[in-house]
């Protein structure tokens, strides 16, 4: 078995088609078909059942999939450790961010500091939902990611860096603008602007309305918290946000915020990486810089409340 064959096999198994799998490993469909055929000939068993729309793993394919993922994770770890031997300034770090706020306001400065310490390092950044990024960590496609908690995967280790309560936000002209609390029923009846599905915070909001037997009136689903805040500023509806992320707009009188009666929804964010995996010098430095960045940001929030 060759690493390139296992990469092609895992890609096809996860993408469900040869076309999508080939695209993921940057090869032609003919090339990955050849690799899978060679792998099946070596094993002596078929790995996929082909159907008109998708491929389905055979029993042999299911057994190989987890082993292949483990082999590829080890392969990536070995490459990272060998790269470290070349010098402290070298290395590779694949970073993910599920928070547009973090990626916009803090990550550029963090990466600038990281590049000064590791000028020859190969650093890449990608975005996605927390679930997607955790899956990439589990499959060895990402080294570390900034995600929302909780992370349910037992093989993923996390470190909390930011926590806050979730509040409802509205335009100052709203009839309830002078209130401190809003009920679940009143909130559900508003024109709600929420984050997109797939994130932990959105899931907890949906669970809250479900537990209250309420069907919220959702008019917009946006990927960025800044976009939600801006829509609320323009009186397009009522949003839900982290209290700290909305603090500046509230203090400047652009929006008002309410605590949500009966809701115990925390917005917890932090770093996730593979438990027991290789924790490279560049990953350690990135983590330390992130800790310092969030400690400084917490001071700014604290001074802003005064």
What would your notes on this structure say?
Helix content is 47%, strand content 22%. With 306 residues, it is α/β, with parallel strands linked by helices. It has three domains: 68 residues, Winged helix-like DNA-binding domain superfamily/Winged helix DNA-binding domain (Arc Repressor Mutant, subunit A, Orthogonal Bundle); 116 residues, D-Maltodextrin-Binding Protein, domain 2, CATH 3.40.190; 105 residues, Periplasmic binding protein-like II (D-Maltodextrin-Binding Protein, domain 2), CATH 3.40.190. Strands 3, 4, 5, 6, 7, 8, 9, 10, 11 and 12 form a ten-stranded mixed β-sheet that branches. Strands 1-2 form a two-stranded antiparallel sheet. Helix 1 crosses helix 3, helix 2 packs across helix 3 and helix 6 runs antiparallel to helix 12.
What characteristics describe this protein?
D-Maltodextrin-Binding Protein, domain 2, 10-stranded mixed β-sheet, 306 residues, 3 domains, 22% strand, two-stranded antiparallel ribbon, Arc Repressor Mutant, subunit A, 12 strands, alpha/beta, single chain, 12 helices
């Amino acid at each position: 078995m060759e690493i390139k064959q296992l990469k092609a096999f895992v890609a096809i198994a996860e993408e469900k088609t040869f076309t999508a799998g080939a695209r993921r490993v940057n090869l032609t469909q003919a090339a990955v078909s050849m690799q899978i055929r060679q792998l099946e000939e070596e094993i002596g068993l078929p790995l996929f059942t082909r159907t008109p729309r998708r491929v389905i793993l055979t029993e042999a394919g299911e057994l190989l999939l987890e082993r292949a993922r483990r082999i590829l994770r080890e392969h990536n770890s070995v490459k990272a450790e060998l790269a470290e031997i070349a010098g402290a300034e070298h290395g590779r770090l694949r970073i993910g961010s599920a928070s547009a706020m973090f990626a916009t306001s803090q990550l550029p400065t963090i990466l600038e500091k990281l590049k000064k310490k590791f000028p020859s390092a190969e650093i890449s950044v990608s975005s996605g939902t927390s679930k997607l990024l955790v899956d990439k960590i589990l499959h060895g496609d990402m080294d570390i990611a900034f995600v929302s908690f909780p992370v349910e995967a037992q093989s993923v280790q996390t470190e909390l860096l930011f926590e806050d309560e979730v509040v409802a936000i509205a335009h100052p002209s709203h009839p309830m603008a002078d209130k401190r609390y809003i009920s679940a029923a009143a909130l559900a009846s508003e024109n709600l602007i929420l984050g997109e599905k797939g994130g932990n915070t959105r899931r907890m909001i949906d669970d809250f309305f479900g537990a209250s037997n309420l069907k919220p009136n959702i008019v917009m689903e946006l990927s960025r918290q800044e976009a939600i805040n801006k829509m609320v500023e323009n009186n397009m509806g009522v949003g839900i946000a982290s209290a700290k992320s909305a603090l500046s707009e509230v203090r400047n009188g652009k929006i008002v915020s309410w605590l949500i009666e009966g809701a115990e929804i925390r917005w917890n964010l932090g770093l996730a990486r593979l438990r027991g995996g290789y924790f490279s010098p560049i990953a350690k430095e990135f983590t330390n810089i992130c800790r310092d960045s969030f400690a400084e940001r917490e001071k700014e929030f604290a001074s802003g409340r005064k």
